[in-house]
Automatic annotation (TrEMBL):
The lineage of its organism: Bacteria, Bacillati, Actinomycetota, Actinomycetes, Kineosporiales. This is Deoxyribodipyrimidine photo-lyase. Its EC number is 4.1.99.3. Its cofactor is FAD. Gene3D superfamilies: 1.25.40.80, DNA Cyclobutane Dipyrimidine Photolyase, subunit A, domain 3, HUPs.
Length: 450
């Protein structure tokens, strides 16, 4: 027989349970569908990365990947008919849109007595699996992470062996690749399964041991920079967890915890699909927010006059990625210093990040805004100056992204207002006074809390 393997967020050939399931059916047609509902709202950076990753996958498949454009329920049904596949195999999608789409595809296939088979997910443990003692989902990270470790993760799937691929040139002319967006000066990391594995191996050898201390240092590049690879499934977290099991360092433990955060947010979104857009803790919906006017634009362009905030937002624009510590700092600044609602920031991030991911991004923002899952209380306001001094102690990170401050040596770069020629090269003055805005935010919080 013939099966269709419809790739989505699993752009790899190893450790791929859905591929093994498809191969058991017989010949496999590899398919990717450019879905306007997802492609449309993606920013150019994410689109470009996805295209490169697809091209790498296509090369690994000997040029057989069928790329179609259109509404999945219609496209997938038509292709399954064309090749006479009884079953279409996927890795299950856990996001709100993906679940609705897959239900629609399953219904369309069922009309021809065909089946959508969901095997595996992009997570170590499938969202919705981990429940507390009373059978309910967790709402706080630490107990979730304990249950997650106790549950354990499946071992990596067997190697694919000799899959018989069907495809291009065999009756299907699916070469509807979109054009690649022009990214200007922005360079992306190399895409594809092999590049992701190389990056991981390099990190295992050179980065993991010190990861526990280094992960908070944006000036040191001490993190794995694998978020885009995990997002598109070029690597599966199972593979990483199996490698980590052989390591006994603090770094390995910390890295496992970060992978758990990724699973946790996907689990939260699974249980509360509304939390992609709505407040997870509705009590905080009553805060007063400003319209995203000029202050928002200054923030987005990296012109707030607070060096570490501006460096972060310029890193976002020039690299399509931002260090986690700095994501927290810039998010806090938007919400608590500029009083702009988290949703606007989350949208800007999704538009520009190469790893933009609904669950991690929107819950990362809600965490900062105090409306998310964990106890990051609203009243904990990040001070952009002391955060910069602490996590970028020599100022190297700021100087890398803010050329107007390159003449200021050492940590003084975080306080250009105290440096005689701090503004000599056109760096903007502070657009707000942090101490004042902090009080405004806290007063409003006290009002909402009642
Ligand atoms: P590493 O430190 O090497 O971590 C390894 C992996 O663990 C990451 O690749 C990621 O998959 C996962 N991870 C690490 N930290 C987190 C976290 N806090 N939450 C969930 N997963 C985590 N991550 C995204 O993948 N996509 C997003 O759109 C995204 N938006 C964010 C928005 C805000 C406001 C904040 C505070 C965090 C956001 N994160 C997001 C989480 C985190 O910042 C990134 O995953 C991390 O910076 C990616 O770099 P890395 O691969 O070098 O991470």
């Amino acid at each position: 027989g013939t099966a269709v393997l419809w790739f989505r967020r699993d752009l790899r050939l190893h450790d791929h349970p859905a591929l093994l399931a498809a191969a058991r059916d017989g010949e496999v047609l590899p398919l990717f569908v450019v879905d306007p509902a997802l492609w449309g709202p993606s920013g150019d950076v994410r689109r470009a990365y996805l295209l490169r990753s697809l091209r790498a996958l296509d090369a690994d498949l000997g040029g057989r990947l069928v790329v179609e454009h259109g509404e999945p329920a219609e496209v997938v049904r038509r292709l399954a008919q064309r090749v006479g596949a009884r079953r279409v195999h996927v890795s299950a999608d856990a996001g709100p849109y993906g679940r609705r789409r897959d239900d629609a595809v399953a219904t369309a296939l069922a009309e021809d007595r065909r089946e959508l088979v969901r095997t595996g997910t992009p997570y170590a443990i499938g969202p919705g699996t981990i429940l507390n003692g009373s059978g309910r989902p967790f709402q706080v990270f630490t107990p979730f992470s304990r249950a997650w470790s106790e549950h354990g993760w499946p071992a990596p799937a067997d190697p694919p062996g000799d899959v018989r691929w069907l495809g291009e040139g065999e009756g299907v002319d699916g070469r509807h690749w979109p054009a690649e967006p022009d990214l200007g000066d922005l360079t992306l990391p190399e895409a594809g399964e092999e590049a992701a594995h190389d990056r991981w191996q390099e990190f295992l050898e050179h980065g993991l041991a010190d990861y526990g201390e280094e992960r908070d240092r944006p000036d040191h590049d001490g993190t794995s920079q694998l978020s885009h690879a995990l997002k598109w499934g070029e690597l599966h977290p199972r593979t990483l967890l199996a490698d980590l099991r052989r390591q006994r360092s603090d770094g390995a433990r910390t890295y496992r915890t970060e992978l758990c955060w990724r699973d946790f947010y996907a689990d939260v979104l699974w249980n509360r699909p509304d939390s992609a857009r709505e407040y997870y803790k509705p009590q905080l919906a009553g805060l007063r927010y400003a319209d995203p006017g000029e202050a928002f634009t200054a923030w987005a362009q990296g012109r707030t006059g607070y060096p570490v905030v501006d460096a972060g937002m310029r890193q976002l624009r020039s690299v399509g990625w931002v260090h986690n510590r700095v994501r927290m700092i810039v998010a806090s600044f938007l919400v608590k210093d500029l009083h702009v609602e988290w949703r606007h920031g989350a949208r800007e991030f999704m538009h520009r990040l190469r790893d933009g991911d609904l669950a991690s991004n929107n819950h990362g923002w809600q965490w900062v805004a105090g409306s998310g899952t964990d106890a990051s209380p609203f009243f904990r306001v990040f001070n952009p100056v002391t955060q910069g001094q602490r996590f970028d102690p020599q100022g190297d990170y700021v100087r890398r992204y803010v050329p107007e401050l390159r003449h200021v040596p050492g940590r003084a770069v975080h306080t250009p207002w105290d440096v005689a020629d701090g503004y000599a090269h056109g760096y903007p003055e502070r657009i707000v006074d942090h101490a004042h805005e902090r009080r405004v935010a806290l007063d409003d919080y006290a009002r909402v809390k009642g």
